[in-house]
Automatic annotation (TrEMBL):
<feature type="domain" description="HotDog ACOT-type">
    <location>
        <begin position="15"/>
        <end position="127"/>
    </location>
</feature>
<dbReference type="GO" id="GO:0009062">
    <property type="term" value="P:fatty acid catabolic process"/>
</dbReference>
<dbReference type="InterPro" id="IPR006683">
    <property type="entry name" value="Thioestr_dom"/>
</dbReference>
<dbReference type="InterPro" id="IPR033120">
    <property type="entry name" value="HOTDOG_ACOT"/>
</dbReference>
<keyword id="KW-0378">Hydrolase</keyword>
<comment type="similarity">
    <text>Belongs to the acyl coenzyme A hydrolase family.</text>
</comment>
<dbReference type="GO" id="GO:0006637">
    <property type="term" value="P:acyl-CoA metabolic process"/>
</dbReference>
<dbReference type="GO" id="GO:0052816">
    <property type="term" value="F:long-chain fatty acyl-CoA hydrolase activity"/>
</dbReference>
<dbReference type="InterPro" id="IPR040170">
    <property type="entry name" value="Cytosol_ACT"/>
</dbReference>
<dbReference type="InterPro" id="IPR029069">
    <property type="entry name" value="HotDog_dom_sf"/>
</dbReference>
<dbReference type="GO" id="GO:0005829">
    <property type="term" value="C:cytosol"/>
</dbReference>
<dbReference type="Pfam" id="PF03061">
    <property type="entry name" value="4HBT"/>
</dbReference>
<protein>
    <submittedName>
        <fullName>Acyl-CoA thioesterase</fullName>
    </submittedName>
</protein>
Amino acid sequence: MQRQEEHTLEAKPARLSRTILTEIILPADTNYHNTVFGGRVMQYIDKVATIASMRHSRRGVVTASSDSLDFFAPVKLGEAIQLEAFVTWTHRSSMEVFVKVESENLLTGEKKRTATSYLTFVALDEHGQPCPVPAIIPETDEEKRLFETAETRFAARKLRKEERNLNL
């Protein structure tokens, strides 16, 4: 379990990092199926997660990893795409960010969960070096669930990185 004393900064509620990005899907955003390019969704995910991690750390950040991106449904031309991101857990200088993606048919109001993703960001000091970040205080059931399972994801990321380094 993460403890506040592991960090030199005062812990912050996860809600303070919560960030929402909404866009309308236009023809330039779509493929030949008239659905949004997966790469465009990835771009939006990285953008909203960057903002959430900067809100939490109040530092410049870099993307360290993108653990997963699971697509559940397409986002169609003319629909809105809404991404919600928040910091779920922190280590010394790293932050895990969860992003959920939803589409909305703006004519009917129908909404669908379209994707979820986990990313890791590292906060940087004024010299571009990793620096400590505040711990997270989860408040909602969703935040608590993600917080409680974060160390397992952290360990899996670390193992995956070690295995890839051995294969180089």
